[in-house]
Write a structure and sequence with these properties.
The complex is a heterodimer of chains A (288) and B (110). Chain A is an alpha+beta fold and 288 residues long. Chain A is built from 13 helices and nine strands. In chain A, strands 1-2-7-3 form a four-stranded antiparallel sheet, sandwiched between helices. In chain A, strands 4-5-6 form a three-stranded antiparallel sheet. In chain A, strands 8-9 form a two-stranded antiparallel sheet. The longest helix of chain B has 21 residues. Classes of the chains: A alpha+beta (288), B mainly alpha (110). Chains A and B meet through helix 6, strand 4, helix 7, helix 8 and strand 9 of A and strand 1, helix 3, helix 4 and helix 5 of B.
Chain lengths: 288, 110
């Protein structure tokens, strides 16, 4: 690539960054498509777009500060989705194809038949320098904390951003808590050894070991989504009494699940408790 | 039946092993950990090779076993957990999860 080509690519990147921010994103980063060596087969950029050079990640669509303050957890079940940031990813893809003439594919936020994401978007966000993985799981931006991400694969050979030099997790407050109490706010709110999902250690102010009960987390994050629907339907089939079957089918849990499924056709997170207590980006959640 | 599903006997035979190999409880799974410490779950293809069964059978066994792992009661407990955690935070902020540790420390010192 000539110096002129490099300048051109940098100009394209600046244009895409401006477009993303104007569209409501908080961050944009670019990952090297060849850097996804830790991803499983079938979930690497080349598996989805032959000739892919870069993965563009946009982040944003955070819950509002007021959402975090609400004492009603059900509020965030419906207000917090990845739809808005995925729409920005689609806008990026359209711009690349129409204006620059390169292929572009935005990763859909759902899962494939094997119930796995089409691409590990968290890994993409990390490799694009948009944040770093947390002990709780979500990728956290050092300034903004929790947000949703979308990834767009493209044959456009943009300059890469690398992973962050200093991870956002653990926050200094969490290191202090770990040093005094051998836990952190996220692990304290959802402890794996006491009916929760999260466990682990901090070593030298970094994540040492991490344990995560993904099956239990599913019961909390997708209580009233596809998994909850399947469990409730199983209970209906198992119930021999007709009247009891009616109580289940017309009852609150099953009804709420159907509402939830019809609100959103993509991934819908329904538990935010580990993130609610996370100090990373919390200054943006402290308003009057 | 017009779509593929796994034989229940095959499911019973392999579900524990499939869950173990795919890491239903993830320990040091994340990509950012150093390679020497990282223990990612195996892919369906890798599990199929290890167990000597078809990849599509592994996929079905894993998806069904993940759903079966916790009984429906756990879904009800999830509602109680979220309600309490959210309400406690609205009242006490981060202290809603840290105060018990601080109290324990004070009790120890006193």
């Amino acid at each position: 690539m000539t110096a002129q080509d490099l300048d051109q690519m940098q100009a394209y990147k600046t244009e895409l960054n401006d477009l993303a921010l104007k569209s409501g994103a908080l961050v944009l980063g670019v990952a090297d498509a060849a850097a996804f060596t830790a991803a499983q087969e079938g979930q690497r950029p080349e598996d989805l777009l032959p000739g892919v050079k870069t993965v563009i990640v946009v982040g944003g669509a955070q819950p509002r500060a007021g959402d975090w303050r609400s004492p009603t957890y059900r509020h965030m079940e419906t207000t917090s989705t990845s739809d808005r940031v995925t729409a920005i990813g689609n806008r990026i893809a359209q711009h690349i194809e129409r204006r620059f003439g390169y292929y572009a594919v935005t990763i859909p936020p759902g899962v494939d038949r094997a119930r796995k994401p089409f691409l590990n978007v968290a890994l993409a966000a990390e490799l694009a320098g948009c944040g770093s993985p947390s002990l709780a799981g979500p990728v956290l931006h050092p300034e903004h904390g929790f947000m949703y991400y979308a990834a767009t694969l493209t044959t456009l050979p943009l300059p890469f951003d690398g992973p962050l030099d200093k991870p956002a997790c653990p926050a200094p407050e969490c290191v202090s808590m770990w040093n005094e109490h051998a836990t952190t706010p996220c692990m304290a709110t959802c402890p794996i050894d006491d009916g929760g999902c999260l466990g682990g250690t901090l070593v030298d102010e970094r994540i040492g070991e991490r344990r995560y009960d993904v099956a239990r987390c599913t019961t909390r994050v997708q209580t009233h989504f596809i998994p909850g629907f399947q469990k409730a339907l199983g209970a209906v089939f198992d119930e021999p009494d007709k009247e009891k079957r009616k109580m289940i089918l017309w009852g609150t849990a099953f009804t709420r699940t159907l509402w939830s499924m019809s609100y959103s056709n993509v991934s819908q997170g329904q538990c935010f408790e580990c993130m609610r207590v996370c100090p990373v980006g919390s200054k943006h959640r402290e308003l009057r | 039946m017009g779509f593929y599903f796994v034989d229940p006997e095959l499911y019973k035979q392999y579900k524990d092993r499939v869950l173990e190999l795919s890491q239903a409880i993830q320990i040091n799974y994340p990509e950012h950990l150093p390679p020497e410490r990282r223990k990612p779950g195996f892919s369906d293809r890798q599990i199929a090779e290890k167990l000597g069964i078809e990849e599509k059978a592994v996929r079905e066994i894993r998806c069904v076993a993940e759903r079966e792992y916790y009984p429906v009661d756990e879904w009800e407990r999830a509602l109680e957990f979220k309600d309490k955690a959210c309400r406690d935070f609205a009242v006490g902020g981060v202290a809603s999860v840290t105060k018990k540790y601080i109290k324990r420390q004070k009790d120890k010192a006193g």
